[in-house]
Write a structure and sequence with these properties.
about 475 residues, Enolase-like, domain 1, 14 helices, globular
């Protein structure tokens, strides 16, 4: 059986399903190949969405135990029902993935359930989940298979005692001691969840700092805040081995620069050292599709590989492994395929760490600007001086702008504080339109709002902050 389409998308994560929908909106006949039983990929099923559901629930538990009393809300006998908490997370995931199925039906995108393999330009073979195979002919193929967990030699994940991020969102019992290997976004978020729910949490990081991609000043502030919350950090430390017993896991640690080994015992270990592009089993070598040294698919400015008619977006190509980056690439790809001339500004793609306080950034860090040799100015404003933050009782952190000293154009914005992930949107929009810090500072912001800290930080670039 052979079907013919204008576009076949392999992978239904945020990049894949959005590309499929946008292409269908533009009049193309589209199929999406997905091997799992639910659409949405890693993000919707075992990544972004379930982790945020757990973060929200754990924050509620934390508030009930430690914060609400200061608001005059007195509670007694607060207890954790972990089974219900995890069930809520699962329902959130189910509802959202069903929503993607609805969008496919609405936009007449065909979901082919099975594992796709590229036979060459214009042809995809699918090993169907229900059995048998199906060959699909198509004018264009889009690889949107996302990424997978990066393994750590000597520490084998079993999703029971040693877990990846997938296992960490479904631990059936609160661990007494959770060790997180890796001080990046995912490890810190999931470490925060289980710390709030009662675990002792230790983060082991090979580098001398956590969140290495963040502005250094912001990263140091996040380290201080998480330490105050009880998370312990072992920086400049590498994990060289893991031994499992019935009672837990014993890790062997060594200084990153070399030195004497030590042991660290844990009930559960989370391996979170990054992700790698998922390109195995797609038939790329046979089809002649070129990869780079990190096994990412090489593409040109229109997302086309070296093989005409085969394209790629998202985590399988170069750039930050962010769901929203993949989504935007999916839209731009579909519109290019339809003959349009869309634009994607990679300098205005925000990134968020969903700890508390949250951290959000867009554009260049101060270290990157300094290294480029551009003269710059910095404006900062603390949430301690923001009226709404005081009223809410969330005053940790600050907003930081970096602007070109000559033109005042915003080069980067970094926020650590309450709802940073929401506030960064106005900064990304400003950068998309080439705004200056003065443009933001002279824009009227409602009072009292947290976003007034953005306005004040923009004013501070020229030394004109009004409430500090």
């Amino acid at each position: 059986m052979t079907d013919s389409y204008d576009l076949v998308v392999i992978g239904s994560g945020p990049g894949g399903y959005i590309a499929a929908i946008r292409a269908a909106q533009l009049g193309m006949k589209v199929a999406c190949v997905e091997k799992y039983t639910r659409l949405g990929g890693t993000c919707l099923n075992v990544g972004c969405i379930p982790s945020k559901a757990l973060l929200q629930s754990s924050e509620k538990f934390e508030e009930a135990n430690h914060t609400l009393a200061s608001h005059g809300v007195k509670l007694s006998g607060v207890s954790l029902d972990l089974e219900t908490l995890l069930a809520r997370k699962d329902k959130v995931v189910a509802d959202i993935t069903k929503g993607v199925e609805f969008l496919f039906r609405k936009n007449k995108v065909t979901w082919v359930q099975g594992t796709g393999k590229i036979l060459g330009a214009g042809k995809v073979e699918v090993a169907l989940t229900a059995g048998g195979s199906q060959t699909i002919e198509t004018k264009a193929i889009l690889i949107a298979t996302g990424s997978d967990v990066m393994p750590l030699p000597g520490v084998e994940v079993d999703e029971n005692q040693i877990v990846s991020s997938t296992g960490a969102i479904a631990i059936p019992k609160v661990p007494k001691h959770l060790v997180v290997i890796g001080g990046g976004y995912i490890g810190l978020e999931l470490g925060s969840v289980w710390r709030r729910l009662g675990s002792e949490v230790t983060v082991v990081e090979f580098l001398d700092r956590i969140t290495p991609g963040l502005d250094l000043e912001v990263g140091k502030q996040l380290n201080r805040q998480l330490s105050k919350q009880g998370i312990q950090f072992k920086l400049s430390t590498k994990v060289t081995g893991a031994k499992k017993t019935k009672s837990g896991v014993t890790l062997t640690l060594e200084p990153a620069a070399g030195g004497a080994a030590e042991e660290l015992k844990a009930d559960v270990v989370l391996v979170s050292i990054g992700r790698r592009p998922y390109t195995e089993g797609l038939g790329l070598a046979e089809a002649g599709v070129a990869l780079d040294d990190k096994k990412r698919v090489k593409v040109d400015g229109h997302f086309q590989t070296n093989v005409p008619g085969i394209y790629a977006i998202g985590d399988v190509i170069a750039g930050p492994m962010l769901a929203h980056k993949a989504e935007e690439e999916g839209v731009v790809f579909a519109e290019i395929l339809a003959g349009q001339k869309p634009h994607l500004n990679y300098d205005a793609i925000p990134a968020v760490v969903y700890t508390w306080p949250e951290v959000a950034s867009v554009g260049k860090t101060e270290e990157e600007v300094k290294a480029s040799g551009v003269e710059y100015k910095v404006g900062k404003f603390p949430f301690l001086a923001n009226g709404r933050a005081k009223a809410n009782g969330d005053t940790e952190g600050f907003v930081k702008f970096i602007a070109d000293a000559k033109t005042d154009r915003v080069l980067g914005c970094h926020i650590i504080g309450p709802d940073a992930g929401t506030m960064i949107a106005e900064c990304a929009l400003a950068m998309e339109f080439g705004a200056s810090s003065e443009d933001i500072g002279r824009t009227c912001h409602a009072h009292p709002t947290l976003n007034e800290a953005v306005k004040e930080a923009a004013l501070a670039v020229a030394g004109q902050a009004l409430n500090m």
